[in-house]
C-alpha cells in the first residue's frame, strides 16, 4: 500500500505533520500549553496547577517548549528571582486547535472512561 501524503509542491505532509506533533508530544506539554493559553504563570504556580508533575519534568518540558519557540521565559532581577512563562505569538496560532479540542470535549468528554493517573508524583491536597 502506498501512502499519498505529498502535496502539489512535493512537500511530504506526513513528515511535516510528524514534526508538528513532536512539538506538543511531551508527557505534559499540552497541559502546560493549555494553562499558558489562559494567562502568564510563574514556575511555582505551574507546578501547583499540574498535579503529578515533578520540578525536573516541568523544567525539561518548559525548556523544550521555549527552544521550539512556543513559550517565552522572562527572568526578573529580583531577590528571590522571579520567572514568568507565557505562550508566544506562534503558540497563539494554536488557539483554534485548543478551541476545537474544547468543543470536542464538551460534546464527547462524558463518554470517555475516567482513568486514574499513575504518572508522576501523587498530588497532595492542601
Automatic annotation (TrEMBL):
<keyword id="KW-0804">Transcription</keyword>
<keyword id="KW-0805">Transcription regulation</keyword>
<dbReference type="InterPro" id="IPR036388">
    <property type="entry name" value="WH-like_DNA-bd_sf"/>
</dbReference>
<dbReference type="InterPro" id="IPR036390">
    <property type="entry name" value="WH_DNA-bd_sf"/>
</dbReference>
<keyword id="KW-0238">DNA-binding</keyword>
<dbReference type="GO" id="GO:0003677">
    <property type="term" value="F:DNA binding"/>
</dbReference>
<dbReference type="InterPro" id="IPR011991">
    <property type="entry name" value="ArsR-like_HTH"/>
</dbReference>
<dbReference type="GO" id="GO:0006355">
    <property type="term" value="P:regulation of DNA-templated transcription"/>
</dbReference>
<dbReference type="Pfam" id="PF01638">
    <property type="entry name" value="HxlR"/>
</dbReference>
<protein>
    <submittedName>
        <fullName>HxlR family transcriptional regulator</fullName>
    </submittedName>
</protein>
<feature type="domain" description="HTH hxlR-type">
    <location>
        <begin position="15"/>
        <end position="113"/>
    </location>
</feature>
<dbReference type="InterPro" id="IPR002577">
    <property type="entry name" value="HTH_HxlR"/>
</dbReference>
Amino acid at each position: 500500500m502506498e501512502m499519498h501524503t505529498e502535496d502539489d509542491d512535493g512537500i511530504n505532509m506526513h513528515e511535516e505533520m510528524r514534526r508538528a506533533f513532536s512539538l506538543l508530544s511531551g508527557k505534559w506539554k499540552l497541559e502546560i500549553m493549555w494553562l499558558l493559553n489562559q494567562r502568564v504563570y510563574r514556575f511555582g504556580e505551574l507546578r501547583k496547577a499540574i498535579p503529578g508533575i515533578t520540578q525536573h519534568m516541568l523544567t525539561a518540558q518548559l525548556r523544550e517548549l521555549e527552544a521550539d519557540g512556543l513559550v517565552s521565559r522572562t527572568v526578573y532581577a529580583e531577590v528571590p528571582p522571579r520567572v514568568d512563562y507565557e505562550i508566544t505569538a506562534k503558540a497563539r496560532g494554536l488557539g483554534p486547535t485548543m478551541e476545537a479540542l474544547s468543543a470536542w470535549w464538551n460534546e464527547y468528554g462524558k463518554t470517555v472512561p475516567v482513568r486514574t493517573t499513575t504518572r508522576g508524583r501523587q498530588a497532595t491536597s492542601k
